Amino acid sequence: MKLAMAPSPPSSTGDTTFTLRVTDAAGRPVRGGMASLDLVMATMDMGPNHVVLAPQADGTYRGRGAFLMSGPWRCEVTFAAKGRTQKQSVPVQAR
Predict the structure, then answer these.
(1) Of 20, 23, 34, 78, which has the highest C-beta tally within 10 A?
(2) What is the pLDDT along the chain (95 residues), one digit of tens a residue?
(3) What distance lies between CA 67 and its chain's CA centroid?
(4) pTM of the predicted model as reported, rounded to 2 decimal places
(5) How far apart are CA 54 and CA 1, in angstroms?
């Protein structure tokens, strides 16, 4: 799984577009999965901040969400397909 954000680094003053690219061990796109992420601030509880990523072409999943303030965050990514679930935590510094 590879997560990209636009803008990068993300801003706390607007939405961020999240693009998750999922490939198998051979590098082929994984289609037909369900993807989401939770934005978790590292220094305080900001409440639930869940983003659903919609399937696009070729194993790509995309959605929009917002970092509610500047500082250190984690993107807790979840991807499920073919009876398996993968999770990944990505550190982010919102500006």
Answers:
(1) 20
(2) 999 999 999 999 899 999 999 999 999 999 899 999 999 998 998 888 999 999 998 889 999 999 999 999 999 999 999 899 999 999 999 99
(3) 12
(4) 0.91
(5) 15
